[in-house]
């Protein structure tokens, strides 16, 4: 469930070393609803991603990770709740365009709490406290009188909605995806990609002061234990070398 990204451009995070195919790449980007985000990024898909994707929202990281998986063609896809990091509208788009259409010829295992998508599933496995309580199609489960909403309420708990409201934050990319028919216009002036730079890490040049070593020793086991450890190391080396010397006599 934890999306990740490395320090490179958005495109490189999606390609992940694979050869760039423009047609396939564009299909994946549209399926993952990233085309609108690219219009908001200052350099499009060439925008650099900070360490661990700090410059991206949670929903953007989730969709970039999903796009990375889609671009690398596989026979089986295990999707661990990728819809939880996005809003309802984007989740519907991802399910329809990615799971149903783009991966229609693949084996798809989707873990989700959003039961509104279960009608389109071929097979449903209901888990409760780590145990399988029901299996079958949506119609079969309904005929057997299984209330899927009750399992969701048990899983979510009474504070789920309040926690979701507290953790929800709106970014320009999320707002742009709320209205399906709206067009996104880039208000920024076009900038050359070559101007984009990676900020260098802050470094200090010179020798390490003695106070640093003192603080390091104090923060650890303390001077007494450090001294005893050094004495034990010296004694072990003396005994080891002494045994060789004694055998040579």
Automatic annotation (TrEMBL):
UniProt key word Cytoplasm: no
Annotated PROSITE patterns: ABC_TRANSPORTER_1
One of the record's GO molecular function terms: ATP hydrolysis activity
Main localization category: membrane
Matching CDD domains: ABCC_MRP_domain1
Transmembrane intervals: 221-240
Domain ABC transporter residues, every copy: 34-83
Membrane topology: Multi-pass membrane protein
Cellular component terms (Gene Ontology): membrane
InterPro entries from the UniProt entry: ABC_transporter-like_ATP-bd, ABC_transporter-like_CS, ABC_transporter_C-like, P-loop_NTPase
Keywords in alphabetical order: ATP-binding, Membrane, Nucleotide-binding, Transmembrane, Transmembrane helix
Entry superkingdom: Eukaryota
Pfam families membership: ABC_tran
Subcellular location: Membrane
Membership in a protein family: Belongs to the ABC transporter superfamily. ABCC family. Conjugate transporter (TC 3.A.1.208) subfamily.
The protein's name: ABC transporter domain-containing protein
Source organism: Medioppia subpectinata
């Amino acid at each position: 469930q934890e999306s990740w990204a490395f320090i490179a451009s958005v495109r490189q995070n999606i390609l992940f070393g694979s050869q760039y195919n423009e047609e396939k790449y564009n299909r994946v980007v549209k399926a993952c609803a990233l085309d609108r985000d690219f219009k908001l990024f200052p350099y499009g898909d060439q925008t650099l991603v900070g360490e661990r994707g700090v410059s991206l929202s949670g929903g953007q990281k989730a969709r970039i990770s999903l796009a990375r998986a889609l671009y690398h063609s596989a026979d089986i896809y295990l999707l661990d709740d990728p819809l939880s990091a996005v809003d309802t509208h984007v989740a519907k788009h991802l399910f329809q365009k990615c799971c149903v259409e783009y991966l229609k010829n693949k084996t798809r295992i989707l873990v989700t709490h959003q039961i509104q998508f279960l009608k389109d599933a071929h097979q449903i496995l209901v888990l409760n406290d780590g145990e399988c309580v029901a299996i079958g199609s949506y119609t079969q489960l309904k005929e057997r009188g299984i209330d899927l909403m009750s399992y969701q309420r048990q899983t979510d708990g009474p504070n789920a909605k309040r926690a979701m409201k507290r953790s929800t934050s709106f970014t320009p990319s999320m707002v742009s995806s709320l209205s399906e028919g709206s067009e996104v216009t880039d208000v920024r002036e076009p900038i050359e990609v070559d101007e984009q730079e990676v900020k260098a890490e802050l470094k200090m040049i010179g020798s390490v002061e003695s106070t640093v070593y003192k603080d390091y020793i104090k923060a650890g086991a303390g001077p007494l234990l450090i001294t005893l450890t050094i004495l034990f190391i010296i004694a072990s080396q003396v005994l080891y070398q002494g045994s060789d010397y004694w055998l040579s006599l």
